[in-house]
Amino acid sequence: MGTLEILLGASLVGALTCYLLTGGADFGAGIWTLFAFGRSGQRQRALIDQAIGPIWEANHVWLIVAVTILFTAFPPAFSVIATGLHIPLSLMLVGIVLRGTAFAVRTHDVTSRDGSSSVSPIWRHLFAVSSIITPALLGISVGAVASGRLTAASSPSGSFTERFVAPWLGAFPLSVGLLTSALVAYLAAVYLLVESQDQELRNAFRRRAKAACLAVLLTGGFALVQAREGAPEIYAGLRHTPVGLLAIVVTFGLHVAALMTLWKVRDRAARGFAVAAAVIMLWGWALSQYPYLVEPNITIADAAPDETLRLLLASLILGSIILFPLLYYLYRIFKGRVVF
Amino acid sequence: MTDLIAARTQMAMSLGFHIVFAVLGIAMPALIAAAEWRWLSKEDRNGLSLAKRWSKGTAILFAVGAVSGTVLSFELGLLWPTFMEQAGPSIGPLFALEGFAFFTEAIFLGIYLYGWSRIPPCVHFLSGLIVVASGIASAVFVVAANAWMNAPSGFVLQEGRLSQIDPVAPLWHPVAWHEAGHLLLGAFAATGFLVAAIHAFWLLKEPDSAFHRLALSIALAIGGPAALLQPLSGDLIAKSVAVHQPAKLASMESLFATKTGAEFVLGGIPDAATRTVSYGLLIPSGLSLLLYGDANAQVIGLDRFPPEDWPPVAVVHVAFQTMVACGMVMAALAAWSGWRWWRSGSLKLDRPWLWTLVASGPLGFVAIEAGWVVTEVGRQPWIIDHVLRTADAVTPMPGLWIPMVIFTLLYVVLAGVVLWAIWKHIAATYTAPT
Ligand code: HDD
Ligand code: HEM
Ligand code: HEM
């Protein structure tokens, strides 16, 4: 297994990390509109709209970059994933379409300059519901990839259920789905907490951040327990290797630290801990699965020829050199106060 | 309905949906930037309000373009896993480059739409230009991927698998540049004529509105030249199809028998079973002349190919004729408008001309859909020309009619929603400042 494969595998996880921290949090913000009712409901929605409006389309591209890396560098893995996970991925796409459209209709309507009052509440609900379901389906798909049951789909002898349903409709993938939704809601809550300048909203999002953090701990623990049966290779990687154990311990520590800082109203520090925890959870999964892309038989060595890998890596490097300053510029303009 | 047909229908529907937004996403920023330039250079307030109106109106198009494109990226694998497994190493890097073009586009789109009051006017204008440039770049990359499916290059075929892959080859293939040029001209022509139609419509009601007058002139200044050039580019692309995909060309032209001095069939409905064309008008030696500039040149007909390798001839022929007809009308209209403008030095708005513009608003989009049908259906039964058959590339997942129906319904509803939102927007524009 060459360096190229490792670097591209790392880029894949890197793109997913960026997607989780940015695009994922945009979905999380959508989840919180579900709870935006009552006296400050209108202001909460305005905060969320203004927070994700200018950046969600750029954030969303990380997902496309990840898919592109996957099908260019690791075509067999893409093929197996796209075949066996046809159902959850199609549903996820429906969610992506509904979320994006609902947001655009809600915020870009000409008559809505004074808030979203004139737009039918259907769009609000559609936005909120698709924001919950979409990350859950992505999480379910990730769980299925990790579970080691997916490659059953490529054996043509199985029944429909064995090939196209069982790989993802199990306790472990579902628990990863729950975890993903909780995680993006948590990230969004700490971001919005720092972003808001309204004391009442800050208090609300601080409460929600605490609740979401607990939810992440619970669903994360649940997923870990399920992994024992549902994803034995991952479970072994996490429980029986030093890196895996370290990842679990550090993640737990970061969540506790985030909770404590939230208690002490040190919001920015809490945000830092939340981000670090999310990154470590993702990389912990990736490393415990290494070198497998799809457990239990497709590794990153099942890659495209070196010419393709080299060209892809060169494009990614060149692209990033141009891209990161531009992203910095975008965030500087719209998030200058909160990010930097 | 077989699973193969369902998958092809879903793919065609998703692409046919996406292309509308992609095309508007490429060309609208150019129109908007022109309006903003008018404000910056001439202090024309109408330029500013036009730029704001247009960008507010198109924001939803960008969102739908982005999500429908995401659907496509996944569908390549969800519907055609075998294709992607084979093609990924060749055309994957093009999609990666396209990804960076999307990034640039999305970043500057956010800055453009939300940054009016946050950055200096010239930086804002520049952001608009970057959106245009990155839209063009993403189209070039994705069309190069499509051109590779039509004229695959940069590999050696060994036992049905691609090896010795040269991933740079697809981008430098001449077919890619023909297709990209034709597509971009089409994007500007179609968008220009559509926008011109909308504002011509309001000018029928409000002949004195300087706002709509400016809008109309910008739309025609961008769409008109593109429409004039389009038949030339179409001619080039047809010549390259004759070289690379003779079966597709023969279907486009309903040429069943190889012959010298082949006639051009205008209109008509071909019947593949009897190898005849009914109702068509034949122009003797027309096709040989068009393709090779020689009335006696030989043109390869469908008889050189086994019937199971024929594309659906009638579909390809009718789609091709539709595209060419639209293109000719648009080019003529562009020439007429240019001539009027050249003669009187300004836009003289008389009703017959305005009504003609209104009526021809949709033609560009009809041509775009028809052109893609020619390209894609004309490639059948191959997904990668003479390398991989569409039937061998489809996913083993059964019951594909279910996702096909779901996505069709989703897109029908979405199209309705977008039309409704844009309509509300246009109705509000009617009372815009003049
Ligand atoms: C406004 C849009 C528009 C207009 C007016 C025209 N076309 Fe077109 N045409 C397209 C938009 C388009 C397209 C949708 O953009 C296609 C599909 C694939 C491509 O690259 O461009 C296309 C494809 C396409 C192809 C098939 C290429 C292939 O399969 O690789 C040919 C031969 C032509 N065109 C020729 C013409 C001619 C002779 C025209 C005469 C007026 C013309 N087109 C007008
Ligand atoms: C956006 C403009 C496009 C439109 C409107 C379009 C239209 C179509 C249509 C009508 C079909 C069905 C053909 C048939 O089965 O008879 C099809 C198939 C397909 N197209 Fe395109 N196409 C477009 C661009 C592209 C591009 C840029 C790519 C790839 C890079 C692509 C990849 C495919 C694939 C993989 C199939 C399925 C296999 C096949 O039928 O050959 N298309 N498209
Ligand atoms: C020839 C046909 C195509 C053209 C000209 C085209 C062009 C474009 C353009 C200009 C955009 C950005 C504008 C907008 O958001 O409205 C876009 C978005 C997108 N397209 Fe296409 N496209 C084509 C076909 C495809 C195909 C076949 C795929 C899938 C592989 C695809 C994937 C995407 C994606 C993922 C986006 C979203 C980018 C974002 O999030 O901003 N496109 N396309």
Which features characterize this protein?
heterodimer, A: 340 residues, mainly alpha, 13 helices, 80% helix, B: mainly alpha, two-stranded antiparallel sheet, two-stranded antiparallel ribbon, 10 strands, binds CIS-heme D hydroxychlorin gamma-spirolactone, binds protoporphyrin IX containing FE
Strand-helix topology:
The complex is a heterodimer of chains A (340) and B (434).
Chain A: H1 3-33, H2 41-52, H3 56-73, H4 75-84, H5 86-108, H6 121-147, H7 160-165, H8 171-195, H9 199-230, H10 232-240, H11 242-263, H12 267-289, E1 292-294, E2 298-299, H13 306-339
Antiparallel strand pairs in A: 1-2
Chain B: H1 3-42, H2 45-79, H3 81-114, H4 121-150, E1 156-158, E2 161-163, H5 169-172, H6 174-205, H7 210-244, H8 246-252, E3 259-260, E4 264-266, E5 269-271, E6 276-278, E7 281-283, H9 286-292, E8 298-299, H10 313-344, H11 351-359, H12 363-377, E9 382-384, E10 388-389, H13 390-393, H14 401-429
Antiparallel strand pairs in B: 1-2, 3-8, 4-7, 5-6, 9-10
Helix pairs in contact in B: 1-2, 1-4, 1-6, 1-7, 1-12, 1-14, 2-3, 2-7, 2-14, 3-4, 4-6, 6-7, 6-11, 6-12, 7-8, 7-10, 8-10, 10-12
The complex binds CIS-heme D hydroxychlorin gamma-spirolactone and protoporphyrin IX containing FE (2 copies).
Q: Could you characterize what this model shows?
A:
- The complex is a heterodimer of chains A (340) and B (434).
- Chain A is mainly α and 340 residues long.
- In chain A, 80% of the residues lie in helices and 1% in strands.
- In chain A, α3 (56-73) packs across α4 (75-84), α3 packs antiparallel against α13 and α8 runs antiparallel to α12 (267-289).
- Helix content of chain B is 72%, strand content 6%.
- Chain B is built from 14 helices and ten strands.
- In chain B, the strands form five sheets. Chain B has a two-stranded antiparallel ribbon with strand order 1-2.
- In chain B, β5 (269-271) and β6 form a beta hairpin.
- In chain B, α1 packs antiparallel against α12 (363-377).
- At the A-B interface, α3, α4, α5, α7 and α13 of A face α2, α3 and α14 of B.
- Bound molecules: CIS-heme D hydroxychlorin gamma-spirolactone and protoporphyrin IX containing FE (2 copies).
